[in-house]
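hi support,

uploading two proteins for the ticket. first:
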Amino acid sequence: MLNTDPSQYPDENPLADKGGGTSPTPAEVQQYADGLVDPSEIAYDNSYAYRGLDESQITNKDNTYPIHLGTSPRFHRQ
């Protein structure tokens, strides 16, 4: 290792490229904060409450999160 010239190697970090873009996007974060993400996509978050307008979430047996229809802050912003 001491006898090797480091300039022969590329100057790049292979771990820096995550590929496929970043996630979550700012729009996805805002949807989550507004309570508009489908509860089936949320896992292990005891503080999440669905606040959208989809009435089918009320009868969804797989949804264990609280539902407060139409109370999203997005609907009340000016």
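and the second one:
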Amino acid sequence: MKFVNPRFLFFAIFIGMFLLLAACSNSTDGKASENGSDDYPEKSITVVVPAGAGGDTDRNTRTLAKNLEDELGVSLVVQNVNGAGGSTGTRQVLDADPDGYTVLAFHDAALINNVLDLTDYSIADDFEVAGIGILDKANTFMVSGDSKFDNLQDMVAYAKDHPGEVKVATETGAFTHLQLLKLQEEADVEFNIVDAGGAADKIKALLGGQVDVVPTSLGLVQEYVDSGKMKSLGVMSDERLELFPDVPTFKEQGYDVVFDKIFFWAFPPETPDDVVNKFSDAMEKVVKENGEFADKLKGYGVNPEYVGPGEAEKLIKETQNNYKEIYDSSK
């Protein structure tokens, strides 16, 4: 009977274990490469916009998406999923596969939906935030060109004398809804708040005479201002805007109402970090380096501003907490 040298046996076992571990490592590396960012993206990406076509959310998203295509090398297909103040489209992304091929492009309305208990999830806690690409400081209250109101003070004075008479368009649970709640509290007035739908629908309601006032983005309605069909009562920014120097702020008219609209992009939960980061890097390059993109946004009256994943998530949390304070104090 032959006996195997113990040292030889130990050496053979050691070599076998080494080869086995190497094989496992190669297998794992291959999987990481397959599911990671090395080959991402390999096909078109669906961009879910929880708002109707024709509004500022749709317009801003399509503008950034078009430029992202050049950086990512694939098509970005914008899908408008309107309804329930944006929560329908947001939920669709939350439930999507976390493979990097479905992304949400939205704004503060998603935060407000959570504050109003219209959703059981939050952007910062339940999504993988890719970043912020656009900031809109030109949030305004618009009236028709022949309105009896020439500024915010005129409207507030009339509303004080005629409680519940001034019809103001909004979309329940949306960004403009919170603006109205804040102004009502700040000015101690009561408006007749009309749920008119998304941005494009609200503008139609004002042009058609169904409402007296529309909160919207000034850049979105600039053509109506130029034609005399609309006029602005003021902007909700800290100071007058370079693009609209003749439009006073709400603050200088005596009402501390300031709202900046942040347009963010976010992936479903558990989307790999390297995929999110690669998409975010493309956003950063477009926002910081693409002059054509910046000029386009300037024409819209909004600002290109990149905030990366970590800081964007922090800002979103802080903003949502601020909105909650506003809502709670308005009850």
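thanks. also noticed: Residues 35 and 152 are 54 Å apart (CA to CA).
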